[in-house]
Amino acid sequence: MNKYTEDDLREELKTKEYEYGFYTDIESDTFPVGLNEDIVRAISHRKEEPEWMTEWRLEAFRAWEKMIEPEWANVHYTKPDFQAISYYSAPNSKPKYNSLDEVDPELLATFAKLGISLDEQKKLSGVAMDVVVDSVSVATTFKKTLGEKGIIFCSISEALREHPDLVKKYIGTVVPQKDNFYAALNSAVFSDGSFCYIPKGVKCPMELSTYFRINQAGTGQFERTLVIADEGSYVSYLEGCTAPSRDENQLHAAVVELIALDDAEIKYSTVQNWYPGNAEGKGGVFNFVTKRGLCEKNAKISWTQVETGSAVTWKYPSCVLKGDNSVGEFYSIAVTNNYQQADTGTKMIHLGKNTKSTIISKGISAGKSQNSYRGLVKISPNADNARNFSQCDSLLMGNECGAHTFPYIEAKNKSAKIEHEATTSKIGEDQIFYCNQRGIDTEKAIALIVNGFSKEVLNKLPMEFAVEAQKLLEISLEGSVG
Amino acid sequence: MLKIENLHASVEDKAILRGINLEVKAGEVHAIMGPNGSGKSTLASVIAGKEEYEVTEGDITFNGEDIHELAAEERAHKGVFLSFQYPVEIPGVSVTNFMKTAINETRKAKGLEDMPAKDMLKLIREKSELLEIDRKFLSRSLNEGFSGGEKKRNEIFQMAMLEPKLAILDETDSGLDIDALRIVANGVNKLKSKDNAVIVITHYQRLLDYIVPDFVHVLYNGRIVKSGGKELAHELEEKGYDWIKEEVNA
Ligand SMILES: Nc1ncnc2c1ncn2[C@@H]1O[C@H](COP(=O)(O)OP(=O)(O)OP(=O)(O)O)[C@@H](O)[C@H]1O
Ligand SMILES: [Mg+2]
Description:
Strand content of chain B: 25-35%
Distance between the termini of chain B: 34 Å
Helix content of chain A: 25-40%
Helix content of chain B: 25-40%
Radius of gyration of chain B: 18 Å
CATH topology of chain B: Rossmann fold
Number of helices of chain A: 14
Radius of gyration of chain A: 22 Å
Number of domains of chain B: 1
Distance between the termini of chain A: 64 Å
CATH architecture of chain B: 3-Layer(aba) Sandwich
CATH class of chain B: Alpha Beta
Oligomer: heterodimer
Strand content of chain A: 25-35%
Bound molecules: adenosine-5'-triphosphate, magnesium ion
Largest sheet of chain B: 6 strands, mixed
Number of strands of chain A: 18
Structural class of chain A: alpha/beta
Shape of chain A: globular
Largest sheet of chain A: 11 strands, mixed
């Protein structure tokens, strides 16, 4: 059978050209702007997906068309024009630059501060590489190790080709296509993402994606991740990169689904550092993410996140504690500076008996930013002896930023034990002077204070990631105090 | 070492220091006493470079260099240390981590590499023994939940770690029990040499029995109104400040 080619695609779209307006002969790898059923079909076709997947996407698209963009979050922005976006862009194989000299020096300086190797710097900023980077061969080696244990770790497109039954069985089971506006959009048009399956009783021997993360840079705006931990298995999954990403795409709407079957455990750690816009609040990424995990009996899911990037963030990694004795955890650091806005938190849905959840949220606001925690703890009537502990701490720098806490509790079972603690503090001049007096300059003092404030969450990150995350916090707050 | 001439300082347009003259030479111990609110802590903060206080007149030189324009951390790098009257809490930052940062930042300012972990540990062990500090204490968050006495002892531990040229101890004795006072004072005495100097701010003669001053100054209303030898401290202990106030107002 002939492969679907660029030309087919072009032909297919030409007929509709007038509907989307002006269609210039841009790189053949990019679709024209706009969204309709044909585009959805074209994406699916392009990715050589099975028929059921195309239908699944279309279902999502039809639902999305009838939905309206949510407005309840404590963020303000000009809504994206969804018909002005191009929904498919093949991974660009053409290097953007010929050498590092052409890359924005400011970006390189940040790379250096983060301690990112030259090879990684090249890869991240899209510089052509003449040597095969070590990490690529490392990746191959590790893929082999994983394969021996029966672990599947690949792109979701590959999974759709190689393991369609697994994908079909689980995709959309935790975040249904119609879950919300952005999830529906993602379901219709997702370009790629990761797929991971850990077989029964297998403990994944390494932090997944550590060795692959550099390859993730530049993954599209609509990422789809599906992680399945079969009974009694364990996996720690790392997502994102501390390196600043200068993505041109304004809108990012990812979906992450985690499934922890009986006695399984998934640790999912994220570091997000997308372009937050400039100091005047121009530009920056809109990050509207749906992340949710499902715990069966005795299963455990921990979300740990360090969020420093994006202009607008809307993100609530959640746990559905369906099985008895299952455990959900959410550890979060969200930093906002300048004009950034973040509305983030979690939902812990207790369905099973003796389910337990822990929420530790640390919000750090500087500049003119707004940082909101929004959390829901829901105890259903059957969830006997459910327990939740929530702690939300806010740290303010300066007088122009805001920290807000919106905890919602719905307890429908009398035996529930729910504890909520919240604090708000400011970095005091006295604290800074104390540090200064010991020879620590103001910038370093702030980093020290912020790290201390965030420690409980930083401690939850895998060691290597924690060190990077710490540096990232420092960099994100640079220049936030005069 | 430290030379202060006609120093005037104010906060929010309120004059607090109104013409201080003080010279401290290497090897000397000076005590500053004076009623509450007379400006002792303000003087200490101004020497240390707290920006909140505006120097409106006068000069401060440290080892011959005008330090008036220097930031607080730069003064610290040059060897100025202040033991705070009210040490602040920094949650989540352990005493050890704080000291490690302070020492390495100071070294960095001098163009030196970070202190090797091994040396750092040795230094911590040595100094915590000197001040009879339990090592477990050092892994606690800086000053968080410390008792009044523990905070003060921790200040002197930091001084021991940083080995400053000029140490200003602002009411380090308040809050210390009798044994702790002895331990802390002994610590200070051990760190004293002919190359460094100490300014002790205190309300009580008691501390000066241990850390014996060469000079005692009385600060009142933002000025040093009387200076003398260590006998002056005894006299104040006996008679209070009224006679001095009368002298000034006369
Ligand atoms: N930041 C400030 N804002 C307003 N007033 C201040 C400030 N700092 C000091 N003062 C005032 O300046 C005066 C001197 O204060 P300072 O703390 O120097 O006194 P002190 O001699 O150390 O007193 P004590 O013996 O009680 O410690 C006081 O009247 C105090 O209220
Ligand atoms: Mg005082």
